[in-house]
Amino acid sequence: MGLFSNQFANVVEWEEYRDDVLFWKWTNKEIKKDSKLIIKPGQDAIFLYNGAIEGVFTESGSYTIDSQIIPFLSTLKGFKFGFNSGLRAEVVFINTKEFTCNWGTSSPIRLEAPGLPGGLPVRSNGKFSFKIHDYDTLIEKVAGIKQMFTVDEVRDRIKGILDGLLMKWITKVGQDVFNLMANAFDIAKGIKEDLDMELIGLGLTITDFRISEFTYPENITKRADEAAEYTMLGDMNRFQQVSMVDAMTGNGGKTSTNATDMAGAMIGMQMGMMMANQMANNMQNNMSAATPSGGAAKFCPNCGTPANGARFCSNCGTKLG
């Protein structure tokens, strides 16, 4: 059976149900006196007459139009008809489920970062959930002009504003652009509130918004890993020299004037230094805690080299007590 069948209907139901549709409007047919209304689990049915809501049915089951539906509607809003001929009305079937969709940035978001005039390009992805919240607003703003409303339409609407909201809340929350996941909860919370304000005008509400990850360009991530490795080996000066040479030379030793490559190396180096310094600080704290109070250090607190009773580290020269 298609979306529209004969002029008169014996059954009023959601034909060709799809789970990616928020609502479907039964219309353009007259309801016969002995017709039945069928509401399936996960559905609500809204009776409309002259564009106004006359009644909302939330219990699944089969109802006889003449003996059950019409008397019920008449007690609600004076829905009274001589039922000698067909009753022309509209029924909007609502999908009551919560919809969950994946999202991702349509293009890299460029965040202000030291050493990178064009900004640090960052991508992000995650999931969001939403559902129909306000039937009156939905009927007024959407169902009055559409036969059905799909998940893709909602996703496209959100996609159009999401990159801007990410930029807004990353900037607003602030903190470290090289470790955005540390602030992902606060960023997601702000975006959820803004998206909810956007969709409430359609009768929808955002029930959840999550950020799964932030990703950086591959060359910057690679530089960060290299920087962390060299830093932990205690040879940061050498790495800086190597990085600058790598950034300025390429393609078989020819000089490169690609500012993006050089800036990427600098950003990667900064990220790696931050990660490595944090690890080194943790190591130093652990070693300091292991040193007996008032006694000689067993290991260098700076590089971890065994002290062997010496007053200065044999590797880095740090004073040992």
Structural descriptors:
5-stranded antiparallel sheet, single chain, 321 residues, elongated, alpha+beta, 4-stranded mixed sheet, disordered N terminus
Describe, in plain words, how this protein is organized in 3D.
38% of the residues lie in helices and 29% in strands. The chain is of the alpha+beta class and 321 residues long. Helix 3 crosses helix 4 and helix 5 runs parallel beside helix 7.
Tell me the number of helical segments per DSSP (H or I, 4 or more residues long).
7
Q: What Rg is obtained from the alpha carbons, in whole angstroms?
A: 32 Å
Mean pLDDT: 76
Distance between the termini: 88 Å
Helix and strand topology:
Blueprint: E1 8-12, E2 21-26, E3 30-39, E4 43-49, E5 52-57, E6 61-64, H1 65-77, E7 87-88, E8 90-95, E9 99-104, E10 109-113, E11 116-132, H2 135-143, E12 148-150, H3 151-173, H4 184-199, E13 204-215, H5 218-232, H6 236-248, E14 249-250, E15 254-255, H7 259-290
Parallel strand pairs: 1-3
Antiparallel strand pairs: 2-8, 2-12, 3-6, 3-7, 4-5, 4-8, 9-11, 10-11, 11-13, 14-15
Helix pairs in contact: 3-4, 5-6, 5-7, 6-7
